[in-house]
Fold each of these.
Amino acid sequence: MLLHTVSKVSSGAVHNRTLTNNLKVLTEQLLVEHHHHDDGADYRLTTGGSEFVDLLDEISRWHRQHRKSPSGKR
């Protein structure tokens, strides 16, 4: 299901191996946790992961506010 969701919001196809490798790195960096339960497993953001997403949102907001138009004007 995660692969399907990521593929829908991505500009291109996301391969299962790519997703698995990225989730492994994010888990090693303590940004996500892998949870197992009776009907499967899922990944969830850790507190640090959530804070990182908030930081990226703030950077994106700043970029939108300060980016220059193609003519060089803001």
Note: The chain has one domain: 2-66.
Amino acid sequence: MTAHLIRLEDVDVSFHRRPVQSRRLWDHLRARVGQRRALRLHALRRVCLHVAAGEKLGIVGRNGAGKSTLLRVMAGVIVPERGSVSVASGRTLAPLIELGIGFHPELSGRENCYLGGSLLGISSREMRLRIEEIAAFSELEEFLDEPVKTYSSGMYARLAFALATCRRPDILLLDEVLAVGDQFFVRKSLARMQRLMRDGTTVVIVSHNLDLLATQCNRLVWLEHGEVRADGPSAEVAAAYRRSGGRELKC
């Protein structure tokens, strides 16, 4: 029987969107009498998804399809309104789901490695042994003691990726992190990610780069309007998505 590290059953997530507040008296009065209601955005609808140990899963879809929300649900950042989410106990999970998540802008890169490492279960003693390797991989040796608020988006991404992959996690969640940075670092990051995959890390990748997903993943999930439109072998789902032209198809 296949061991599933991540299980999502009938997951629903929605958000309230409110129009920009108007300063006009009439709009204020309309809001007071209930004529101006919050809009409800359904980010995920009845999503069932099982991710097996060692699987390489890619998630594709247009902007607003629910891809990043799905990754945040897996990471435990978002709690669904309905349904259940479970991650196998005792497994280490490294989420790169937002640029610089867990970093404090006033702290240096070095200090943020200790801070972020603690969230990944890396002790201070282990971090002292790994910090130079993290600095070398991210190519930030001369900037490691500068506040991260002075970093560019590419520097953020390099440090975050180097930190999250400095040791092999059981589960790695990536949300477009390889889309930031120069092509040389992207190639180096891909090589490290491929090594982690060969060593058994379960990887879930959100990306608009369909070629990347088709070549690096053995399975693709196509999200549309928060629902799973297709789930299967990467070549088949990628071909179906390409035939759609990235258009949102009506169910």
Note: The mean pLDDT is 87.
